[in-house]
Amino acid sequence: MEELLCNLSPEQREAVTTTEGPVLVVAGAGSGKTRVLTHRIAYLIARGVPPSRILAITFTNKAAREMKERSIALVGDAAREVWISTFHSFAARILRMGGEAIGLPQNFTILDTDDVRSLFRAILEELNLDPKREDPRRYAAEVSRLKNEGTSPEDYLKRFDPTRPWERLLAQIYLRYEERKAQTGSLDFDDLLLRAVELLEHEAGSRLATRFRYIHVDEYQDTNPMQYRLLHALTREHANLFVVGDADQSIYAWRGADPRIFLSFVEDFPGAKVITLERNYRSTQKILDAANALIRHNPGRPPKELWTENEGKEPVRVLFAGNQNEEAEAVVKRIDALTREGYALGDIAVLYRTNGQSRVVEEALLSAGIPYRIVGGLRFYERKEIKDVLAYLRLIANPVDDLSFLRVVNEPRRGIGESTLARLRDFADSMGSSLFHAACRADEADIPRSKAKVLIGFCTLLRELGARSRELPLARFVDEVLEVTGYRAALLALPEPERSSRLENVQEFLNMATSFQALHPEADLPAFLAEVALLTDVDTFEEAEDRVTLLTLHAAKGLEFPVVFILGLEEGLLPHHLSVEEGNVDEERRLLYVGMTRAKERLFLTYAEYRSQYGSPMRPSRPSRFLEEIPSELLVVEDVRSPWAREILRRHRFSTAVADERETAGVAGLPSFGRFGSSREERLGKTGGKAGPEDEPWQPGDRLVHAIFGEGTVVQVRERGDEIELVVAFPHPLGVRTLLPRYAPIIRR
Ligand code: ATP
Ligand code: MG
User: Where are the residues of the annotated region Disordered (predicted)?
Assistant: First the structure.
């Protein structure tokens, strides 16, 4: 017991040992909130609380896994029995245990975001609407909103405004969507929480609701109203609710999280003990000073300053690049230098606001031969072969899952085409049955004999597999599915390199199943499928490998790295223009605060003078207001622009136009760009720019340098009206571009 508590500060110890009643730990980043939560679990077990009566909710499955491992390390194997999971995994688990009482099948399928989108697309098609013109995502988002505010399709049908065509359509779509899910025994992510609340508030769920004596929630500031109701249902008989959070790190409002829930904890749970922690154990003082200075600009927050005993030598650095390619190169150069100083690649993270920003960095890392991993992006489970295998497993576990049926009935090819499927659909509708059950009786339908035979054969095969799923260990079973369905044979028949890469992914999936089974020996197929469906981006990344980690600021929550780069500190990007338009700059500031406080020893912020987004041409950008908010003595700015970028801006008249634009913008938004831009004289082209080869006419074969594209060769000179047009060849992948030398940021070599 002493050992458990001796590594904690007095405040942390108090939080750990206050076991009864509501407790709120409110504290800044890196102050040990998550650590306190883990120690508290261990402490409860050491005090004799049965582990199965302890529940902890984390934000990702990865965090759950880590917390479990740490508590096992602290108090031994007993900690295995503790329930540690995300809200969604928790909901799925109790619904599998008791969902039948509220009319759910035990083997329900969980629809991920992708499945939900396909379902909406299918419904739009049924209603003869074009899913290309009517964005399924928009309907998915609206339906999700309605559900979370507690409006059922029936409620909405009564209340929508019939003079508005869009609302009428939404009502129809919502109803169908819910019907479809009911028919196919599926639940989306919203349903998991909604139905779990329903179960816990129901008579039949009361045993489950009172099972947990000690409840813990990490990252409480990002709780949404439905999760809050779930916590209420769990604390009916006692109020042993222990939550930790930091209002400054609330970054999920866009996903329905409600920061008021955090702020009103003390009123909601009377008698709550509030513990604050101010010492940071993660970062150097220099990093904290910069992060504190930034977050101080958010209005309406109680003053709270983090301090640490770790002074630190290295200042926070701002790398000021000419454009996004130079930004990426500067980052890669730094990474290289850091590894020579002794940092491992796994110590380094590159954070960015939008997924699209990773590509340039990836390319730079690739060409420097530095291994990296991306958290997010195309997820493992979104790959075709993995989705196919999963669909087989889902259909076996839940034969009424039509979506999965459609995915695999002709995968590998069995000669079942659109027209057979349309007839099957009619037959199923006429009986009110699922596609699978209709297929089993295909000989009674208006379907050609040969096709009917194939369908019936498919049914028999899956039924046999259903029986096998209860006999074989999980990984062996998955292997058998691949074999007898002919799926593996079909992969083997593919041309290279597809064949190898798909087979490797399928092998990786088998490894996953094996390790899942090792961790949960009692788990059955539905449990495995639920686990897979609820994995988040962050969950699929393992720390052990020596690679640089690339991830969004949102995904970085709760993590820490010795070295952190944050890219693109520019107006429009960070803060993101959508948030600026919605007047939500404070949330962007919190997002940057989260990013900065991930760093333990070194922190780099970058800014590029030009950037192209979403494939648009390069545009001049302005430094983020956040850079201006951090006092200059806390930042060291390094100009990493290439000599060419500098030279071009200095000499070309294009820079004058840019400078003018900036000057105007500066009046509106920013006090000065002095620290980050070149001097005004320089920008206005007053300091140099001798006339010279610029004035000679262009000729094919001339070499030039473009501020963004780099070196190129003129292949053709054309006249168009008064203008001269240059056709210039740039190296692959840029290719041939047409430029107007009067405006383009180029100089002759
Ligand atoms: P965040 O707000 O970012 O989630 P947090 O408050 O949850 O941060 P932790 O991740 O728990 O902070 O702790 C940050 C780091 O400080 C971890 O590496 C942790 O092990 C370390 N730490 C926390 N408390 C102590 C302590 N008393 N002694 C030594 N190290 C500590
Ligand atoms: Mg934490």
Answer: 678-700
And the tokens for 61? 């499955």
Residue with tokens 């404070």, as numbered in its chain: 586
Instruction: Give the side-chain half-sphere CA count within 13 A for 297.
Output: 19
Does the annotation mark 218 as catalytic?
yes
Question: Is the predicted pLDDT of residue 66 greater than 70, yes or no?
Answer: yes
Q: How far apart are CA 558 and CA 741, in angstroms?
A: 50
Which of 191, 196, 234 lies closest to 56, judged by CA? 234
Dihedral-angle region of residue 715 (phi above 0 means left; psi in -120 to 50 means alpha; beta otherwise):
alpha
- Residue 276, classified by CB atoms within 10 Å of its CB into exposed (0-12), middle (13-18) or buried (19+), is middle
Rounded Cα–Cα distance for residues 401 and 109 (Å)? 7
Nearest CA among 167, 508, 569 for reference residue 516: 508
Atom 13, ligand 1: which residue's CA is nearest?
32
Give the whole-angstrom CA distance, residue 355 versus residue 348. 18
Active-site residue identified among 181, 304, 387, 598: 598
CA–CA separation, 326 and 655 (whole Å): 18
- Asked if residues 487 and 481 have their Cβ atoms less than 8 Å apart, the reply is yes
Residue 673: pLDDT band (50, 70, 90) is: very low
Ligand that lies nearest to the alpha carbon of residue 32, given by its number in the listed order: 1
d(CA 34, CA 64): 11
Q: Which atom of ligand 1 is nearest to the CA of 279?
A: 24
Cα-based distances in Å from 305 to 288, 294, 603: 9, 11, 19
Query: Separation of 35 CA from ligand 1 center, angstroms?
Result: 6
Residue 467 structure tokens: 């029986």
For 437-485, write each residue's pLDDT tens digit: 999 999 999 999 999 999 999 999 999 999 999 899 898 999 999 999 9
Using the 8-state DSSP alphabet, how is residue 573 labeled?
B
Asked whether the predicted pLDDT for residue 263 surpasses 90, the reply is no
**Token representation of residue 562:** 């010795």
Contact 397, 573 (CB under 8 A): no
The torsion of the CA quartet 88, 89, 93, 98, rounded to 10 degrees, works out to: 0
> Cis peptide leading into 575, omega within 30 of 0?
yes
Residue 34 annotated among the catalytic residues of the structure: yes
Strand 703-706 to strand 710-720: parallel, antiparallel, or no bridges (unpaired)? Answer: antiparallel
pLDDT at 60: 85
Q: What is the DSSP letter of 203?
A: G
- Helix (H/G/I), strand (E/B), else coil: 312: coil
Cβ atoms 601, 562 nearer than 8 A: yes
Would you give the end-to-end CA distance of the chain in angstroms? 73
pLDDT digits (tens, 9 = 90+) for 600-617: 999 999 999 888 766 556
Task: Measure the CA–CA gap between 569 and 491, rounded to whole angstroms.
Answer: 45
Give pLDDT tens digits for 605-661.
999 988 876 655 667 788 999 999 999 999 999 988 887 777 666 655 444 444 444
Q: Identify the residue whose tokens are 């000599």.
A: 643
In DSSP terms, 84 is beta-bridged to 56
Whether 516 contacts 523, CB under 8 Å: yes
State in Å: Cα 85 to ligand 1 middle.
20
Ligand 2: centre distance to CA 182 (Å) = 38
Query: Within 6 Å (CB) of ligand 1, which residues are found?
Result: 7-9, 12, 27, 29-35, 246, 249, 281-282, 558, 560, 597
Structure-block tokens of residue 576: 């993101």
Residues 27, 33: Cα–Cα separation, whole Å: 7
C-alpha 409 – ligand 1 centre gap (Å): 50
Confirm whether 313 is a catalytic residue.
no
Determine the residue type at 455. Answer: L
Question: Which atom of ligand 1 is nearest the CA belonging to 37?
Answer: 11
**Binding-site sequence positions for ATP:** 27-34
Beta bridge partners of 329: none
> Whose CA is closest to atom 30 on ligand 1?
281
